[in-house]
From TrEMBL:
Record's keyword annotation contains Ion transport: no
Alphabetical list of PANTHER family matching this protein: ADP-L-GLYCERO-D-MANNO-HEPTOSE-6-EPIMERASE, NUCLEOSIDE-DIPHOSPHATE-SUGAR EPIMERASE
Domain of life: Bacteria
Sequence ranges assigned to domain NAD-dependent epimerase/dehydratase in this UniProt record: 3-208
Keyword field: Carbohydrate metabolism, NADP
GO molecular function annotations of the record: oxidoreductase activity
Xref: InterPro entries: DenD, Epimerase_deHydtase, NAD(P)-bd_dom_sf
Species in which this protein is naturally found: Salmonella enterica subsp. enterica serovar Tamberma
Protein name, as recorded: SDR family oxidoreductase
Keyword check for Transmembrane helix: no
NCBIfam families from the UniProt entry: ErythonDh
Length: 269
């Protein structure tokens, strides 16, 4: 049994790999694929890393094989980057997902395909309670790409080509490291940077309500997806999160780090 993680060199991919290697899940190989991999992730003999561009012809044929049981598709062009580079966003976020699904379809076994979707599939005016079946109303290219991929995963699952799940991730807070090009990167920055003695800018109103989850909770839920029973007619699931305002987060920052930490956050809209 082989498990594959695309985007395996990223923050989520590395955390998920560690969780799977330390779990009771039985597999003989965990293959991480990304454009660039960290120098060393684990000494486990079950771990293999591959630096490759999955969008290039002929690569997928050597990645997904008859030994593959689970594919975690985490690789993506993040939100602001996908908005700025329209063609690249659709090439990676939609076209690559379709190519991965096709590679799974060609195998003799039915592969569990776990797609990392996003709350970006929702936009505009939403109901008070957003459920798994709330209509998708993306307001960005990234959100539209994720929504389109959810439909692909659902249809390939309906046809019996894969055993698919599309997991809608909340905004992950607090992410370590430097901000990336995700539109939501400020959510971690307004907590992370002030606690490290650095200033940061909050680009939104304190009244803005967010849907967030900790890295540990998201990784735990992703790891469960390898063996989660098929949900039935719809393959898209909203992962657990909590609803908070930016103001509530900043008040928590003040309580944790003092007024000096809170004062390191300035506002610019």
């Amino acid at each position: 049994m082989q498990i594959i993680i695309t985007g395996g060199g990223g923050f989520l991919g590395q955390k998920l790999a560690s969780a799977l290697l330390n779990s009771s899940l039985a597999f003989n190989e965990l293959l991480l694929v990304d454009l660039k991999m960290p120098a060393r992730l684990s000494d486990s003999p079950r771990l293999r890393c591959l630096e490759a561009d999955l969008t290039q012809p002929g690569v997928l044929e050597n990645v997904i094989t008859a030994n593959t049981s689970v594919v975690y598709h985490l690789a993506a062009i993040v939100s602001s980057h996908a908005e700025d580079d329209f063609d690249l966003g659709w090439k990676v976020n939609l076209d690559l997902t379709r190519q991965l699904l096709e590679a799974c379809r060609r195998q003799p076994q039915k592969i569990r395909f776990v797609f990392s979707s996003s709350l970006a599939v929702y936009g505009g005016t939403l109901p008070e309670c957003v459920t798994d079946t709330t209509a998708l109303t993306p307001r960005s290219s990234y959100g539209a790409q994720k929504a389109a991929c959810e439909l692909l995963v659902n249809d390939y699952t309906r046809k019996g080509y894969v055993d698919g799940l599309a997991l809608r991730l909340p905004t992950i807070c607090v992410r370590p490291g430097k901000p990336n090009r995700a539109a939501s990167s400020f959510v971690s920055a307004i907590i992370r940077e002030p606690l490290q003695g650095e200033t940061t800018v909050c680009p939104v109103s304190e009244s803005l309500r967010l849907w967030i989850s900790s890295p540990a909770t998201v990784i735990h839920n992703l790891s469960l997806a390898a063996t989660l029973p098929a949900p039935g007619e719809a393959s898209s699931i909203n992962l657990p999160g909590i609803s908070v305002t930016v103001g509530e987060m900043l008040e928590t920052l003040r309580q944790a780090g003092g007024q000096a930490a809170r004062d390191r956050v300035t506002h610019q809209r």
